[in-house]
């Protein structure tokens, strides 16, 4: 599958047969920054499930090398999206993901929940914060892409429609979100890493409430954070509304924003897909 992306390359395509092209355009052109941020928050939500955060603590890598783990995860998920699920690079990335997951005992329910966050969070985020919400065809294409990815990861019980993913996601969070020390440890490491992309460390304590204002109450409580004040929430809401208005006035991006092409301090000389996520990982008990 080709990788050419133009400002109109995702328009007018069939969401059931050309979902990869639509999703590639959504992620690289139409909602480039918003989808990247929403997927960061999607992963962050999974850390509120003790079985997931506990596994991350036991591997011993998330807290000691948070930037490397972030980069490895983002690159492994972006390779199939930007190059095609069955392209050489995309297939190699999926194989690597499966090899990493195969080292641990991860329940199908947890895998299915994580997949549901990748489906649901970008749709929800763009409805609230982007220049416009996903169209119905874009939601269908986005759902179909992650259904295809999940099938290649060997996940069973994958829903066929977005509404079913949304219901599964909400039910799982309602049943599984609860505080655990591992949640807090992974959340602190992750949030500090994300804040560090924009701010020096001395400003983290000031910025953390603003970041938390983008999260809902059950998530904040499960992470063990102090909820932001109503004033902070209002300020963040106004700032995001202003950004949404400005984005709506700007012309569409012309040059694709490719995650796999980004220079990273973790890999100054480039990366090899088969070596992403490497290191002395220990099997979970």
TrEMBL record:
It holds the Pfam family MPAB_Lcp_cat. One of its GO terms (molecular function) is oxidoreductase activity. InterPro entries: MPAB (IPR046366), MPAB/Lcp_cat_dom (IPR018713). Residues 59-242 form the ER-bound oxygenase mpaB/mpaB'/Rubber oxygenase catalytic domain. This is ER-bound oxygenase mpaB/mpaB'/Rubber oxygenase catalytic domain-containing protein. It comes from Maritimibacter alkaliphilus HTCC2654.
């Amino acid at each position: 599958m080709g990788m050419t992306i133009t400002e109109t390359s995702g328009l007018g395509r069939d969401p059931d047969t050309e979902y990869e092209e639509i999703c590639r355009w959504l992620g690289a052109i139409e909602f480039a920054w918003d989808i990247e941020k929403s997927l960061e928050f999607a992963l962050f939500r999974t850390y509120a499930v003790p079985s997931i955060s506990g596994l991350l603590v036991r591997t011993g890598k998330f807290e000691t090398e948070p930037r490397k783990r972030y980069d490895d995860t983002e690159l492994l998920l972006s390779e199939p999206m930007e190059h095609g699920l069955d392209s050489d690079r995309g297939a190699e990335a999926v194989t690597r993901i499966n090899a990493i997951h195969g080292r641990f005992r991860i329940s199908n329910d947890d895998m299915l929940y994580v997949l549901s966050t990748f489906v649901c969070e970008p749709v929800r985020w763009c409805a609230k914060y982007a220049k416009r919400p996903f169209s119905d065809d874009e939601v269908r294409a986005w759902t179909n892409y992650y259904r295809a990815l999940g099938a290649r990861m060997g996940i069973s019980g994958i829903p066929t429609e977005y509404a079913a993913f949304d219901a599964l996601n909400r039910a799982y969070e309602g049943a599984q979100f609860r505080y655990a020390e591992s949640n807090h440890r992974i959340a602190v490491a992750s949030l500090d890493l994300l804040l560090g992309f924009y701010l020096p460390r001395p400003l983290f304590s000031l910025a953390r409430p603003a970041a938390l204002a983008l999260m809902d109450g059950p998530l904040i409580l499960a992470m063990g954070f102090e909820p932001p004040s109503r004033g902070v929430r209002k300020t963040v809401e106004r700032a995001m509304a202003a950004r949404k208005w400005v984005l709506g006035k700007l012309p569409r991006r012309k040059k694709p924003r490719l995650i796999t092409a980004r220079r990273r301090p973790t890999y100054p000389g480039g990366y090899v897909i088969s070596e992403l996520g490497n290191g002395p990982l220990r099997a979970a008990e």
